[in-house]
Amino acid sequence: EVSTEDPETAFCTLANREDLNPEEGSIHHCLYQFTHNEKLTETNKLLCDVCTQRHNGPKKDIKSEKNYVYTNAKKQMLISLAPPVLTLHLKRFQQAGFNLRKVNRHIKFPEVIDLAPFCTAKCKNVAEGNTKVLYSLYGVVEHSGTMRSGHYTAYAKMRSMNNHLSDLVLRGQSPQALETEPVKGQWFHISDTHVQAVSAAKVLSSQAYLLFYERLL
Questions:
Q1: Closest Cα to residue 155, out of 108, 194, 106?
Q2: From CA 83, how far away is CA 45, in angstroms rounded?
Q3: Dist CA 71 CA 85 (whole Å)
Q4: What is the pTM of this model?
Q5: pLDDT, tens digit, for every residue of 71-99?
Q6: What positions belong to coiled-coil segments (predicted)?
Q7: Can you tell me the distance from the alpha carbon of 151 to that of 145, in angstroms, rounded to the nearest whole number?
Q8: Domain 79-215 belongs to what architecture?
């Protein structure tokens, strides 16, 4: 999607991301890196239709790449629509020569996460004036083993119904309540047919592969 927003606000977020100072090895650091402002220069310059038309004239039919005009640009991935359910997929493999190697490093993740520093200032389903977009953790998928074989298990929270989430999913209404605490409930570890109650601390120490959050605010 090509945006023609005011360049002064195009890269603004709901909350100041520079105040984050995220800890390396945390989900906040992963999100910060993923939404980092990138400069496109040299061989990464952006093909500019406006510049091309201005250079060649508006009525000229441009058929040769020699007539294309490329320009320096900035690129940033931000969230424009806060989802009812936030799914974070951690890349747990890296290229090692011609082989793929699993990354077993523990990534810290919280029970409540604020997406505001990663949302565009004009996020479509956030009420005007809100500077927080909060989510509560309710599920984790963990993988043990290697790239060739292994086993998937899950952590899930049994909790009461989130009425604000239902409104958001069914009617597209933004949640209005100022909830800032995790949704109360009991965590369980599920492995095949085995289910065991566990503490939140056990969940937060897991080697997360997939994280599932539900929107609070």
A1: 194
A2: 32
A3: 37
A4: 0.81
A5: 888 888 899 999 999 999 998 888 777 77
A6: none
A7: 6
A8: Alpha-Beta Complex (3.90)
